[in-house]
Each structure stands twice: as C-alpha cells, then as structure tokens.
C-alpha cells in the first residue's frame, strides 16, 4: 500500500515537472499547464481505443500537499508586505474593496438569473463568477515579479475583503439552499460579527503581535527556525477555520504580521522553495478533480460567463482602483490581475448540486475555471500593453477636441 502511494506521488511529480518544463518552453504561466495535465492523467482522464490515460489518483497525500501549497503561497505574499502597510491604506482601501466585491457579486447575480431564472441558481452563479482565486492570483504576482509593486497592496486588500465576504456568503448560501429560500438572518449574524472582529483586530494589532513574536523567533538553528515558523502557520490555519475564515487567509494574515519583524527576510528565504514545490502540487491536484466529459452542456453559458467576467472585472477593477486612489496605470495592473477564478467556484457548485439545484453547475464551474486559467495569465502579463493602447486611444480622442478649440 505504501509503495502504491509513493508510486502515485512519483507519477504526480513527474507530470508536474513536465508541466513546469512546458511552461518554461512556451514562456507562459505554469498554472494552466498543471491544471490541464492533472485533468488529462487524473481519475477522469480520456480513453483512446479502450486504453485509459488515467495514471494518477487523487490521494490524501496529494490533497495534503495541495493544501500546504495554498497556505505557503498566501503566507509568502503576506511576508512581502506588512499589516502596517495594509492598514495604512485605510478608507481608500475600504471604499475600493467594498465596491469591487459588491459590483462583482451583483453582476454575477444578474447573469445567473438571466440564464437560470431561479434565485438559488443565480446565488450560486454569483459566488462562482464573483470571487477571485487567491492561489492563482498569488502565483501570477510571483511569476510576474509584482509583489513589490504598490498596487499589490490593494490586490491583497481585495483578497481579504473577498474572504470576509465569502464567510458571509457561505452562511447565507447554505441557509438559503437548506431552507428553500426562507432564511433567518438572526442565526448567521453572530458568526459574521466574529469574523469582522477577528480580521479588524489582526489589522489593528498586527504590529504589536509582531513585536511580541520577534524575540521568540530569535533562534540560531535553521532547523528550529523552520519548524517554529511551519508550526505557527499550521496553528494559525486551525485557529481561523474554527471561526469560519478560510485557512489561506489565515496564512496571509500571519505573513502580514511576521513582515513586521526583523525575521521576515529569513522566513522568506526558507519558505520560498516549499512555496514553489507545494504550490505546483495544488494546481495539478485541482486538475485531477475536473471531469471534461461534463463540459458539453455547459459550453454556451461558460463562454458567456468568461466574456462577462473579463469585461466586467476590468471595468470594476479600474473603478475600484480609482476609488482607492491609484492612477490609471496601476489600476490596469489591478484590474487585469484579479480576473482568475479557482477552487472556490468548484466548491460552491458542488454544494449547490448536493442541495438539489441544476446539475449543469459543476461542469460550468470546472470549464469556467479552466478557460480563465489560460486567459488570466495572458491578460495579467499584458496589462501594461493594454494601458499603453488606452493612452493612445485617449490621445486620439483628445486631438480633434484640441484642434477644434
């Protein structure tokens, strides 16, 4: 049994290595290659003349490494900033983040109603299309070397805002689906207050918490240091999950706190290799869950959703960035980076089907995520080119006005 697990894991890493190699050859993000390879060799792999290409099973060991990958990627992103930087954004971040999340959700709600004419399905579609993928966006920021950019602070803020919204949304969705549309708001209000209180406390007291941890992390042994940091990361994930906050956002918040200490560079040095290794496992594991055979019935709605998301997200991102005080160039970087959708879309669709909603939703979510995993890296990489075209267009429009005056 142990030998089978090692063999399965060895095959998984062989295909992960292949995906990263292909991405390097084509000078493209590794994300879609890893997802696609996972889909082609996983449990739902295609068959040719009766021969199945299903070579890798989705095991608990792969799932565990996948979860660690998400934690490490978000943890690293937090280390690149600090609670102080994020909190100093203050009112502009609050306005921009709130508007971004609200407009994306409302757009998804309208889209869902247009295609399904049912509030339960519309609410599910709003969740699938309205929430960005923290893991994919983090990987894009790393690939594009934009973690030091000032607008990345706003992207971080958006991820935090989305997670607060997620906690509320999941409470509302589960209550709505199980009650057949009759939901008691009083029942979910206490958990919402706890979630808001916890995140505000971390952002407010982050520097003090960092200073408390600083002397306790002053250990010379590299082995002890890595073990302590990793233990802190796991304990934080456990803590935040108990109050219904995504473990990945807990990792992000811990990173923001440790960024306030003198040990931040040392943590980054030790964490980076693990981040790359387990992060790749996450995207491959995500592909293992996708069943391409269900795509047929969902093609039309998926293509419409992709166009709606790309166009709508760019407009929403630009508007939110403007509200947050960023100029057009930085706004383009924000708007074109936060388009990716990911694992949360699949989770929401699965919850919806379990509650007896439309069975097309899992196929729609999987194909939607896969298409955006190819589209979003291209858009993010070329955000500056789109900005340059925008400036040229503005100048062309201005010239006739200047001549007429």
Characterization of the model:
The protein is mainly alpha-helical and 405 residues long. The protein has one domain: Na+/H+ antiporter like fold (Up-down Bundle). It contains 17 helices and 2 strands. A hairpin with a 2-residue loop joins strand 1 and strand 2. The longest helix is centred in the middle third of the chain and has 29 residues. It is globular. The mean pLDDT is 84.
What's the tally of helices? Answer: 17
pLDDT under 50 segments (min length 5)?
none
Strand segment tally: 2
CATH architecture, by name, is: Up-down Bundle
Question: Could you tell me the mean pLDDT?
Answer: 84
Structural class by SSE content:
mainly alpha
CATH class: Mainly Alpha
What is the N-to-C succession of helices and strands?
Answer: HHEEHHHHHHHHHHHHHHH
Which value, in Å, is the CA radius of gyration? 22 Å
**Which descriptor suits the 3D outline?**
globular
**Do you know the CATH topology?**
Na+/H+ antiporter like fold
Strand content: under 5%
Largest sheet: 2 strands, antiparallel
Structurally, the number of domains stands at 1
- Assign a percent range to the helix content: over 70%
End-to-end CA span: 81 Å
Short key terms for the protein model shown above:
405 residues, mainly alpha, Na+/H+ antiporter like fold, 17 helices, globular
Describe the structure concisely for a colleague.
The protein is mainly α.
């Amino acid at each position: 049994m142990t030998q089978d697990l090692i063999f399965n894991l060895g095959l998984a890493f062989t295909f992960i290595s292949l995906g990263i190699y292909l991405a390097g050859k084509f000078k493209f993000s590794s994300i879609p290659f890893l997802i696609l390879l996972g889909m082609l060799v996983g449990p739902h792999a295609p068959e040719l003349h009766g021969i199945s290409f299903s070579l890798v099973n989705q095991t608990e060991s792969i799932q565990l490494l996948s979860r660690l990958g998400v934690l490490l990627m978000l943890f690293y992103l937090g280390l690149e900033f600090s609670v102080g930087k994020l909190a100093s954004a203050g009112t502009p971040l609050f306005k921009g983040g709130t508007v971004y999340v609200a407009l994306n959700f409302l757009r998804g709600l309208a889209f869902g109603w247009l295609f399904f004419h049912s509030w339960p399905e519309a609410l599910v579609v709003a969740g699938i299309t309205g929430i960005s993928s923290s893991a994919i966006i983090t990987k894009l920021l790393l690939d594009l070397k934009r973690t030091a950019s000032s607008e990345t602070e706003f992207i971080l803020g958006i991820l935090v805002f989305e997670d607060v919204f997620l906690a509320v949304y999941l409470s509302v969705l589960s209550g709505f689906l199980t009650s057949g549309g009759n939901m008691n708001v009083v029942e979910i209000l206490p958990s919402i207050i706890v979630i808001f209180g916890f995140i505000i406390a971390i952002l407010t007291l982050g520097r003090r918490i960092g200073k408390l941890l600083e002397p306790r992390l002053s250990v010379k042994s590299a082995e002890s240091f890595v073990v302590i940091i990793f233990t802190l990361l796991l304990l934080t994930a456990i803590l935040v999950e108990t109050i219904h906050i995504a473990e990945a956002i807990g990792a992000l918040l811990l990173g923001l706190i440790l960024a306030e200490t003198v040990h931040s560079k040392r943590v980054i040095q030790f964490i980076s290799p693990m981040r790359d290794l387990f992060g790749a496992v996450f995207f491959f594991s995500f592909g293992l869950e996708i069943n391409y055979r269900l795509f047929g019935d969902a093609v039309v709605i998926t293509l419409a959703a992709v166009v709606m998301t790309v166009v709508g997200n760019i407009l929403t991102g630009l508007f939110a960035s403007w509200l947050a005080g960023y100029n057009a160039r930085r706004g383009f970087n924000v708007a074109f980076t936060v388009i990716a959708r990911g694992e949360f879309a699949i989770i929401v669709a699965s919850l919806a089907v379990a509650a007896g909603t439309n069975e097309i939703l899992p196929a729609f979510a999987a194909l939607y995520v896969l298409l955006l995993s190819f589209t979003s890296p291209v858009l993010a990489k070329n955000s500056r080119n789109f900005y340059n075209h925008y400036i040229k267009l503005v100048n062309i429009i201005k010239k006739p006005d200047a001549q007429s005056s």
